[in-house]
Amino acid sequence: MKPGAGVSAVPLAERLRPRTLAEVVGQRHVLGEGMALRLAFESGQPHSCIFWGPPGTGKTTIARLMADAFDAQFITISAVLGGVKDIREAVERAQLAQQQGRRTLVFVDEVHRFNKSQQDAFLPHVESGLFTFVGATTENPSFEVNSALLSRAVVYVLQPLTPDDLKQIVASALAQQALPAIESEAIERLVGYADGDARRLLNTLQTLAVAAAEQQLHSITDAWLLTVLGQQLRRYDKGGEQFYDTISALHKSVRGSDPDAALYWLVRMLDGGVDPKYMARRLIRMASEDIGLADPRALRLALDAAQVYERLGTPEGELALAECVLY
CA nearest 249: which of 232, 267, 226, 271? Predict the structure, then answer.
């Protein structure tokens, strides 16, 4: 993008949205040659499924591509905002399409939030084959999705995008001249900031494009990037699957006597906005349950670290928590 050039009115995420399966970035474990979901596309026979993965991993995009591949009308329902009325409207549209010889794919976002009345209105039509059901969730469907609905769908686990995947998205944006050239250090920071989330990366690139156009920048440097991003934190899902996975990783690192990993997971949680007092309680629990009599001093150290944080607060008190984890 030339300095001073205007920013396209079409959002960057829309401009870079994959139009074919080959354009999808990441998820090679399900979309690569010979992989399960790829075979489903190539079979020409749609089947109900649930995409489980963190935000920005392509759940909605893949669902749209499925509808295109099977020449099906695409209907979206939000399990949070939609109700039984929305499901009935989707059924009517699917019945009309069926009369015209066309398939229907109903995409349910946040499917783990489906309540009983929604499921009761939805299930009979999945069973009859009136439409193909595709759900998206950031929570483990084995625990959060109704068993009757789960039994009628194949679960595909989508992974966070790798750094190479995210760099590929940045390269695509640069190829579209959506923003000025970006220094390699800035790209590395962007990739780390996105933390596997393509949507977050694209939204950030859009923000940078607007700011760079206003300032007529020739290139985006790492220093300028820092001033634009400010103190925004890495993504962290405080109430969901990722939260408990990260706690588990911290426990395992301590039990495995891996100081580097233990310190990483502690800082990752603090960086993500977890209350340090909660972390202090976790350290006391680890000292009592995971270490116990193997080293009785660990409990005393954890209690002291919690007291130090109570007195000093952030950021000084967090140092005591880090020292406790390393011990």
Answer: 267
pTM for this prediction? 0.70
Cis-peptide, bond into residue 315, ω within 30° of zero = yes
pLDDT tens for each residue of 74-85: 999 988 887 888
User: What structural domains and CATH numbers belong to the chain?
Assistant: 27-157 (3.40.50.300), 161-229 (1.10.8.60), 241-326 (1.20.272.10)
- Helix count and strand count (H, E) for the chain: 17, 7
What is the rounded distance in angstroms from the CA atom of residue 161 to the CA atom of residue 170? 13
As given in the structure block, the two tokens for residue 32 are 């690569």
Structure tokens at 198: 């393509």
pLDDT tens-place string over residues 221-259 = 888 887 877 655 444 555 555 667 777 888 888 877 888
Cβ-contact 325, 285 below 8 angstroms: no
Phi-psi region of 110 (alpha: psi -120 to 50; beta: other; left: phi over 0): left
